[in-house]
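for the recovery benchmark. tokens below, seq after
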């Protein structure tokens, strides 16, 4: 049933022509609508700003008016009264006005002279749009509340970060598809040297899963301060799910929890990962060198005995750890980009800013977090750590796939650096293509048993983009004026690269080339 069926429509009519304005007001009032009139767009804004109570459901507005025309009013309504539905009316039959109105967010177009049936149809359509917008806004506000709770639970354990043996910062982003979700990030400072970081994803998307997520975070907090191991915490919650939470006699699939536990020891410069069904953890050193920790394992709640995937690795003096949920991987796959690139864009964007744009069609909750660290009592600039946004390996005989590879690089750059100008994007892609083709054809010599490592990296302040291309070939002496093999082609390619980049570096054996590009400054907003 329409939620407005028993209520009086609340409508604002905006028209500088008194005859048309009064006629439409009378026709709407004949349908029992409550109608307010304004003489132009500026007058309408003044009425709305002085109004108490809920926003108008519908605004009927003319296009051509003094002071503020209909298009300017429509733009103002989109920004300041987003639940109000706008119907644009004009006596001008030009189709471009129709198109411009609908592109601007109008829900209906009404021709003059007015026809009562058309007015009723436009009103029904607009009120239904208003109802959906109100419901969507209320749902978004509830989502923000849930996300705020998650953020609070995440940061409470890090208030003592200044006592740690390293400078570190934790960034988290939550995007739930329903009013609540079971995704979580829990960080617990065990002692000045050690942090327990857990990312979890409870199956399902409702309030029950949100409660279970909060309960699990309490278990983590309590057991961690009792010096329990990650394995012990995982086993305790697995036992709870199997013996107390899930109904053994039910034919339905029980609740499960995918979780990854990270114990980060800054004193010993070591990270230990225990994975129970989550995607792998990205570990990068200050130069962007990449390692994937502990991918796989079975979620908690599936089996009575757990067999998590373990791994231990050495921490660089500065670096990052990035974790994300299955929902992020599914969304990245749907978009045709790597999870690394999507995680970067999400973590670089303000909280909730992508809900109605990039992530509006997500089918699962998304959570991502990044832990950054540097040595204590040192002023390590953000630019000192390089963050991977694409990291792939190509077979030596892949040169015939260069167009598809180029498309993937373009997608990555447009996603991660949306402010990148077309001219600079063209230069980057041209240089990268040349570097990869040289590595495939002249480094690997088309050998399918050899590989090219491709890396796209951004420094922490987003001032520079770096590309590294490494091949399995024999290499060459970069001090030589010309490489020994096919000198004309390689030299021409290097000339193009050097002309379009900020800097070019070769490794000592000539097997790696790194290209650096200056990025445009971030907007002050």
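predicted aa per position
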């Amino acid at each position: 049933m329409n939620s407005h069926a028993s209520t009086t429509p609340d409508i604002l009519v905006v028209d500088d022509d008194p005859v048309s304005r009064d006629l439409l007001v009378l026709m709407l009032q004949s349908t029992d609508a409550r109608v307010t009139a304004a003489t132009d767009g500026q007058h309408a804004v003044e009425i709305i700003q002085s109004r108490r109570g809920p926003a108008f459901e519908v605004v009927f507005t003319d296009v051509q008016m003094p002071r503020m025309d209909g298009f300017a009013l429509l733009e103002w309504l989109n920004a300041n009264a987003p639940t109000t539905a706008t119907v644009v009316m004009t006596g001008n039959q030009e189709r471009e006005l129709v198109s411009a109105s609908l592109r601007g967010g109008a829900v209906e177009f009404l021709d003059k002279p007015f026809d009562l049936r058309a007015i009723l149809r436009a009103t029904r359509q607009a009120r239904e749009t208003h109802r959906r917008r109100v419901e969507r806004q209320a749902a978004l506000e509830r989502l923000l509340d849930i996300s705020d709770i998650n953020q609070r639970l995440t940061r409470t354990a890090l208030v003592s970060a200044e006592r740690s043996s390293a400078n570190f910062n934790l960034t988290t982003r939550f995007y739930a598809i329903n009013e609540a979700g079971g995704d979580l990030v829990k960080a617990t400072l065990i002692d000045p040297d050690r942090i327990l970081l857990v990312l979890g994803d409870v199956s399902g998307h409702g309030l029950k899963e949100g409660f279970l997520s909060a309960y699990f975070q309490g278990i983590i907090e309590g057991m961690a301060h009792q010096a329990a191991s990650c394995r012990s915490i995982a086993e305790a919650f697995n036992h709870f799910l199997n013996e107390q939470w899930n109904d053994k006699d039910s034919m339905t699939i029980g609740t499960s929890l995918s979780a990854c536990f990270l114990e980060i020891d800054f004193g010993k410069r070591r990270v230990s990962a225990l994975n129970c069904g989550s995607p792998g953890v990205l570990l990068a050193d200050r130069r962007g060198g990449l390692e994937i920790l502990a991918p796989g394992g079975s979620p908690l709640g599936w089996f009575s005995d757990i067999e998590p995937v373990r791994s231990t690795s050495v921490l660089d003096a500065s670096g990052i750890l990035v974790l994300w949920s299955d929902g992020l991987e599914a969304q990245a796959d749907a978009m045709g980009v790597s999870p690394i690139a999507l995680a970067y864009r999400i973590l670089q964007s303000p909280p909730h800013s992508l809900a109605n744009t990039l992530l509006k069609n997500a089918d699962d909750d998304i959570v991502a977090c990044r832990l950054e660290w540097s040595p204590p009592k040192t002023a390590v600039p953000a630019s000192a750590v390089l963050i991977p946004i694409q990291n792939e390996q190509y077979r030596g005989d892949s040169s015939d796939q260069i167009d598809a590879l180029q498309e993937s690089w373009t997608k990555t750059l447009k996603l991660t650096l949306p402010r990148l100008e077309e001219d600079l994007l063209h230069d980057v892609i041209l240089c990268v293509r040349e570097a990869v083709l040289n590595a495939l054809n002249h480094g690997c010599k088309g050998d399918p048993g050899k590989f090219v490592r491709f890396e796209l990296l951004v420094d922490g302040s987003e001032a520079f983009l770096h590309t590294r291309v490494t091949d399995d070939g024999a290499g060459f002496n970069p001090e030589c004026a010309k490489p020994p093999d096919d000198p004309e082609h390689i030299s021409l390619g290097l000339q193009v690269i050097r002309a379009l980049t900020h800097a070019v570096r070769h490794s000592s054996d000539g097997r790696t080339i790194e290209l650096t590009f200056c990025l445009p400054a971030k907007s002050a907003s």
